[in-house]
Amino acid sequence: MTVQGLGAELLDELPELVERLVELISTELPSYEIPSAVTAEDLRQSCSDNLTEILHRLAGHEPTDTEAPQATGRRRAEQGFPLAGVLHAFRFGGRVVWEAMVARARRAGPGASDALVDMASSLWELIDEYSALVASAYQERMAELSRFDAERRSLVVDAVLAGLAAENPSLPEAAASLGLPLHGSFILVSVDPAGAESVERAVTDEVRGRGGVAVFRLRSARYVGVVALGPTVTPGGLRAALEAVATARVGLSPPYSELSATPEALRLGDIARCCLPEATKGVVAYEDQPVRSLLVSDADTGWRSARIVLEPVLALDPETRSLLLETLRVWLAAGGNTAGAAEALYCHRNTVRNRLQRLEELTGRSLENPRGLAELFVASEAVTLLGGSR
């Protein structure tokens, strides 16, 4: 008795083997007891297809393919069925075939039993091969489905960011698919892509288990997140969590209460992020920097206004220009305190006074005049924020 001969003989028993395997799987594997997971028809067809291929392989019928285990793996992945259950079912398939082999060998007499060792080796090598095939197909399909889900989720996030009106019937569906409420307390987070990973992790950790939800999306050179704070997460707590991990610019919109208002929150969050100069790091809320927010909202106009005020200064050689503007910036940051500015600049306070006096002469604006001071402040912010080479 040979393996090939026994495999050919077992093909005659295929219907009985299929029923035996279906019954064994149905009674011994809890995962298959739920009809909605894998129907009886699906299970029977899968058992039939895989046993047929296995027995043909044992019988040495060439060519044979491996479509059955691959199809089973893909289908179970699509059904959300656990891979461990699928592999267990394949081992049961090997058990059913082995038991049929033993029964036939016994009927054939003592001499046939000696061939069972070779038969066992061939059978379990084949079961291992098919288990690897089903696992590979399952994992590949799961990866495809994961990518599809991620793409679909991204499209839904895009729809929320772009603006689904409150009365749009698609908004509740989109919100539900993302786990977001329609009403509540929201904040839009806008972050440079370089700092996205730490920000997303910090936000997720802050809202996890506290009734909050966060969804993120890379969009037009920045990473944005819609954060539903939930009942216990506060804007201050969220900001503190972000300040602890920020490695790039992070902007926060003002809190808002309707998911349909997300597009405006996105605009304000982007403005807040851009209130920090490029290539710097930190967290800025929209309400932190009203002057810079105005400049960012219309950068071209802001820069033109700065040139009107500072044109004679901007025309100086780079070293002198930088020295005067840096002195003005530090003096303003010190609240107009000359001694404090001198300390920060490591120079004498008379040096600070002389530089500021030259700045006043060049611009025709006095730092003692409220209007002149305001114009120089705004112009200085524009140069700091928008750059000196526009």
Fold and architecture overview:
The chain is an alpha+beta fold and 390 residues long. The chain has 3 domains: 3-145, Orthogonal Bundle (Globin-like); 172-290, Alpha-Beta Plaits; 298-386, Orthogonal Bundle (Arc Repressor Mutant, subunit A). Helix content is 65%, strand content 9%. It contains 17 helices and 6 strands. It has helices at 3-11, 14-28, 40-58, 67-78, 83-108, 110-113, 116-162, 170-178, 196-207, 235-243, 262-273, 290-297, 299-314, 318-333, 338-345, 349-363, 370-386, and strands at 183-191, 213-219, 222-228, 249-252, 256-258, 282-285. Strands 1, 2, 3, 4, 5 and 6 form a 6-stranded mixed sheet that branches. A hairpin with a 2-residue loop joins strand 2 and strand 3. The chain is elongated, with a radius of gyration of 36 Å. The model has no long low-confidence stretch (mean pLDDT 88).
